[in-house]
Amino acid sequence: AGAETVKRAVQLDVASRFQESLVCYQEGIDLLLQVVKATTDEAKKHRYRQKISEYMTRAEDIKKHIEKEKQDGKYHKQIRIEENATGFGYEKLFHEYLTEIVSEVWVEDPYIRQVHQASRCLLYNFLRFCEMLVKGPCKVKTIHLLTSSDEGSGRSQQMTALEEIKQSLSNYGVTLNIDFSSSIHDREIRFNNGWMIKIGRGLDYFKKPQGRFSIGYSDFDLRPCQETTVDVFHTKHTKKM
């Protein structure tokens, strides 16, 4: 497993996908260290240690490269989610950026509504996103949501759902601030550790499930996606709403 993980790290490294590569290097190094502890053959131990030393050096170089890009405000990573791709649940997409120091999150998405379409309801998507934040490892205390108002009878349903989410989050010590804008168009998510994620389709990049009891209805990692692009940036100072 360790060898396969560092092999993947090298592939990502060559493709200049440095943030993902760093994660794989770190996981691979941990796995190889476990192998070294369990190995009694001294020659094999020596070879493993040499390789581990090489991977640690490369991981450190990548860390420095990423840090420099962040400091220069030049960090940009793009993820292309293909049509019908799976394995892109919120935890998978955001976990790299939800470090322990994250305490405040901004969500801008004009379509956090549509309660009449439960299987494609963005309110449920937003709720699942909030659940991910509550589970950690970050220590989120405040979530800011900027969205647009639903129309007609949908307005009261939207407000009822958002108030329920707000109350539920308060039980976990998290404050949800809700604001509305009639001109909002862009979709982006920002964390107060400097990471900013822009998703072409916002939180609604999943396809409608085949049924309420079909695989992928509850687990977003198993649900097919619509084609979209995810752009990740790092900025020294996230803007305030």
TrEMBL record:
SMART domains for this protein: MIT (SM00745)
TM ranges: none
Cleavable signal peptide: none
Residue ranges of domain MIT in the record: 1-71
CDD domains: MIT_1 (cd02683), MIT_C (cd02685)
PANTHER family documented for this protein: MIT DOMAIN-CONTAINING PROTEIN 1 (PTHR21222)
Stated name of the protein: MITD1 protein
Species: Cinclus mexicanus (American dipper)
Gene transcribed to yield this protein: Mitd1
